[in-house]
Each structure stands twice: as structure tokens, then as C-alpha cells.
Amino acid sequence: MTWREEYNAYILSEQWRRIRINVLARADGKCEACEIHRAYLEVHHLHYKTFKNESLTDLVACCPECHKLLDAKRESETFHRIEDARFHGWCNKVYGEDGDYFDEEEAHERYCAWLENRT
Ligand SMILES: [Zn+2]
């Protein structure tokens, strides 16, 4: 099953329906992002770390406009995490696995220079 298929199946599940009702009840008709009363609210995943096992704190009830912004924010946070992981992978290669004695700032400069030279 692809991630999309798994996601779509879950969104139709009884478990999700119940969580969603609880999040919407908490919001009580008010977007939890812009705090404006809305006739229609959607439920946004702040992250997917607890996907299919969400707590109410992992979710936000929001209006469709805020939902778009929140999705974009989550995407960019994921992007930064991937970038971070790449940088640390590079440090491991250059400084060795136990290279915790290097200067992180200097390492980052070298990493950026390396990225530029590569393209
Ligand atoms: Zn909103």
C-alpha cells in the first residue's frame, strides 16, 4: 500500500471519524489557527509521527484557508528536517561517526561550500 492509499483508507475509518469528532468538539466551531468562527472546519495533522495513533494534541481543527497554510508549514518543517539529516550525514562522513569535537558552524560553512561545488 502506498502512503496515499494508507492515508485515504485511514481517513475513511471509524477510528479517524471518532478522533475527528473530538477535535471538532474541542474547537467548538472556532478555527484553532485564526480563531474565527466558521461553519465548516477541517482537521489538520500537525505531524505524522503518530499517524493512526493520534492524540488530540497532534491535531488542529481549522478552516480551509488556515489548513492550506498549516500544510505548507508542515511541508517546510519536514524539508528542514531532511536538510538537517543530510548535513549530519555529511558530517559523519567528513569528521567520522564520533566527530563530536568539530566546530558545527565551520562544518556548516564547509558543507554549504561542498553543496555549491557539487552543482
Ligand atoms: Zn482559520
Tell me, rounded to a whole number, the average pLDDT. 92
Bound molecules: zinc ion
Number of helices: 4
Neighbour order of strands in the largest sheet: 1-2
The assigned structural class equals: mainly alpha
For the biggest sheet, the summary is: 2 strands, antiparallel
> Are there runs of 5+ residues with pLDDT below 50, and where?
none
What gross morphology would you assign?
elongated
Strand content: 5-15%
- Strand tally is 2
Give the CA-CA distance, first to last residue: 35 Å
Order of helices and strands: HHEEHH
Tell me what you see in this structure.
The structure is a single chain. With 119 residues, the protein is mainly alpha-helical. The chain has one domain (3-118). It has 4 helices and 2 strands. The protein has a two-stranded antiparallel ribbon. The longest helix has 32 residues, at 64-95. The radius of gyration is 20 Å and the shape is elongated. It starts with a helix and ends with a helix. Bound molecules: zinc ion (ZN). The site of zinc ion (ZN) has 8 residues, from helix 3.
Top keywords for this entry?
single chain; 119 residues; mainly alpha; 4 helices; 2 strands; 59% helix; elongated; binds zinc ion
Give a summary of the structure in a few sentences.
This protein is mostly helical.
Describe the protein's topology.
Elements: H1 3-11, H2 14-27, E1 42-45, E2 59-62, H3 64-95, H4 104-118
Antiparallel strand pairs: 1-2
The chain binds zinc ion (ZN).
